[in-house]
Write a structure and sequence with these properties.
The structure holds two protein chains of two kinds. Chain A has four helices and five strands; from the N terminus they run ββαβαβαβα. By secondary structure, chain A is α/β, with parallel strands linked by helices. Chain A has a single domain, classed as STAS domain (Transcription Regulator spoIIAA), CATH 3.30.750. Chain A has a five-stranded mixed sheet with strand order 1-2-3-4-5, with helices on both faces. In chain A, helix 1 runs parallel beside helix 2. Chain A starts with a strand and ends in a 6-residue tail after the last helix. Chain B has a single domain, classed as 2-Layer Sandwich (Heat Shock Protein 90). Chain B is of the alpha+beta class. Chain B is built from three helices and five strands; from the N terminus they run E-H-H-E-E-H-E-E. The chains are: A alpha/beta, B alpha+beta. Chains A and B meet through helix 2 and helix 3 of A and helix 1, helix 2 and helix 3 of B.
């Protein structure tokens, strides 16, 4: 299956926000492309990233590493990462690695944005 | 003669030799999943969650193998051998990397520790140990064999 990262803006409600929708397997093959996408976003001034993993069929530790890297990069720039991950099989990988304790996993983009102040 | 599926014959070992490239991970997962996941759903030895775990641990082992070979520029093909039987599936992943001491793989900082975010790798072995019923690492200067055992419920 093809791996793609689709971007959509969260403007006007969140001018510095974007959704990155990942489609495919987030493994050693796909992770570098997610990493590049996040680096580009932060470089372009994006400070709120909603990472939508709804279309991810397979997530492994290399993919988790890319998610952790995204979280660190955004925090370093006073930004925020929110993760959408409704699929139990994919959520389980976060849970097995205890990463659900540092990353809240949301069921959809609207829920991920709850509590955020519209700018 | 009508060719037909040999119903009672156990699936024999399936072997794959793959180049050390991440693009082949998906193929490995598909083949390993198929060795235990083909047939009527109520007759499969593992439920979909069990098959997902099997695919995940094998993916981790092959990722380790690819990284090991990249570390010394070895282009040898990696062997993935999957042996399902009546009680369990055993998967072996054989690389020609430099070998490593699994006891020396450092523990990651606790997940709540801010320093934990500095570590983007190092979870693979831990995932294998947590999700497989057995994880055996045989390693030496000529390479590593990771043997994963997934038992049927």
């Amino acid at each position: 299956m093809q791996f793609e990262v689709f971007r959509s803006s969260l403007a006007p409600n969140f001018p510095d926000g974007a959704v990155l929708r990942v489609l495919g397997d987030l493994d050693m093959a796909g992770a570098p492309r997610l990493r590049n996408a996040v680096v580009s976003e932060v470089g372009a001034g994006t400070r709120l990233v909603v990472l939508d993993l709804t279309g991810v069929d397979h997530l492994d530790s290399t993919g988790l590493g890319a998610v952790v890297g995204a979280l660190r990069r955004l925090r370093t720039h006073d930004g925020e990462l929110r993760v959408v991950c409704p699929e139990p099989r994919v959520r389980r990988v976060f849970e097995v690695c205890d990463l659900d304790r540092v990353l809240e996993l949301h069921v959809d983009v609207d829920t991920a944005l709850e509590g955020m102040t519209v700018q | 003669m009508n060719p037909s599926r040999p119903a009672d014959r156990p699936v024999e070992a399936v072997e794959l030799f793959i180049p050390p490239l991440p693009e082949y991970l998906q193929l490995v997962r598909a083949v390993v999943g198929a060795t235990v996941g083909v047939g009527r759903e109520d007759e499969l030895p593992l439920d979909p969650g069990g098959i997902a775990d099997l695919r995940l641990v094998v993916s981790e082992a092959v990722t380790n193998a690819i990284e090991a070979q990249w570390s010394i520029g070895a282009n040898d093909r990696i062997l993935v051998r999957c042996r399902p039987d009546q009680k369990q599936t055993v998967v072996e992943v054989v690389d020609r990397g430099p070998g490593f001491d699994p006891d020396l793989v450092p523990d990651l900082p606790p997940v709540e520790d801010e320093e934990r975010l500095d570590h983007e790798s190092g979870l693979g072995l831990s995932l294998m140990k947590r999700l497989a019923d057995g994880t055996v690492v045989e390693t030496g200067p000529g390479g590593t064999i990771i043997r994963l055992v997934v038992e049927y419920p």
